[in-house]
């Protein structure tokens, strides 16, 4: 869908490039996660590939054609949902959606979309009366109202409770399963893990890793077994390498002789990988 090659970018008032020769592809029909610490260059990249920022160096192709050769037809083909929802607060939700839909040639069915995100019953409420979660869901409806082929989502589940977050994630997966392509940024690693086919990590304007969450876990995984046992009224934790565990005398002795509380195999999470690749913890981030 997208081919980005040797992309560099510098803001006019900055001395150095904020993007330094980055290359990546987004395949048709995948959910591609773009992750990295604050200030790494995620928004800048997103703004360039949706044609908000120009004057970049490098080549970007969308569906095989140079991005700079696209005009209005590009915006007809994509849907965008930024982190901060912007709506006309003195208009109803439905009026807002109709207003924005009129800007496009291709139109999705508004009722189906609003029902899908649980907003149809509140369609005649002023947006000013909407909660934050309702505004975020309305924002997704806006991103989909022209039946786009490609969706750009910036922190789509941020600020949503678990049930609304699930509605949104299911919607994103349905979009992908029906052939759509998604570019997504998020700080919520469990959501990224559930949603993304592949992820890229960007640090300081450079791409450090691109792979599927599964492959990253295999590559960065520690593959160990954690055993907790009780001794002298204390809980002791020990880790053993998974490899040749059946020959590991200390492990065998421990499970034979100790008062075992728990045994877990060590699954590396995407959050652990984020920390390893970027050197930044997500708490520092927020
Ligand atoms: N309009 C601008 N003018 C000058 N510098 C900018 C501008 N916007 C962003 N920057 C700088 O470019 C770098 C990359 O910023 P960018 O917003 O792309 O990061 P990000 O990864 O999206 O961060 P966050 O997760 O906080 O949104 C930062 O150093 C930032 O200060």
From TrEMBL:
Query: Does the keyword field hold RNA-binding?
Result: no
One Pfam family name is: ABC_tran
According to the entry, every stretch annotated as the ABC transporter domain falls at: 2-229
CDD domains given in the database record: ABC_DR_subfamily_A (cd03230)
Q: Which UniProt keywords apply?
A: ATP-binding, Nucleotide-binding, Transport
Determine if Nucleotide-binding is one of this entry's keywords. yes
Molecular functions per Gene Ontology: ATP binding; ATP hydrolysis activity
Q: What is this protein called?
A: ABC transporter ATP-binding protein
List the top taxonomic levels of the source. Bacteria, Bacillati, Mycoplasmatota, Mollicutes, Candidatus Izemoplasmatales
């Amino acid at each position: 869908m997208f081919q980005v090659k040797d992309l560099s970018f510098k803001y006019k008032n900055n001395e150095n490039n904020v993007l330094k020769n980055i290359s990546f592809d987004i395949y048709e029909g995948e959910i591609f996660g773009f992750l990295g610490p604050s200030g790494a260059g995620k928004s800048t990249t997103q703004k360039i590939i949706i044609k908000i920022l120009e004057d970049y160096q490098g080549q970007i192709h969308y569906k095989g054609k140079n991005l700079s050769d696209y005009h209005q037809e590009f915006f007809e083909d994509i849907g965008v949902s930024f982190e901060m929802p912007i709506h006309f607060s003195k208009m109803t939700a439905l009026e807002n959606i109709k207003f924005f839909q009129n800007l496009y040639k291709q139109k999705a069915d508004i009722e189906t979309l609003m029902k899908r995100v649980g907003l149809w019953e509140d369609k005649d409420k002023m947006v000013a009366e909407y909660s934050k979660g309702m505004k975020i869901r309305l924002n997704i409806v806006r991103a989909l109202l022209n039946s786009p082929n490609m969706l750009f989502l910036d922190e789509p589940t941020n600020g949503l409770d678990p049930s609304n977050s699930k509605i949104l994630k299911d919607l994103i997966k349905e979009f992908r399963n029906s052939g759509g392509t998604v570019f997504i940024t998020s700080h919520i690693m469990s959501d990224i893990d559930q949603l993304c086919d592949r992820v890229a990590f960007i640090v300081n304007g450079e791409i450090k890793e691109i792979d599927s969450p599964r492959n990253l876990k295999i590559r960065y995984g520690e593959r160990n077994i954690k055993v907790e046992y009780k001794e002298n009224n204390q809980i002791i934790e020990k880790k053993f390498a998974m490899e040749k565990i059946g020959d590991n005398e200390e492990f065998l002795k421990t499970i034979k002789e100790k008062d075992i509380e728990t045994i877990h195999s060590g699954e590396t999470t995407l959050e652990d990988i984020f920390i390893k690749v970027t050197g930044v913890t997500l708490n520092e981030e927020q």
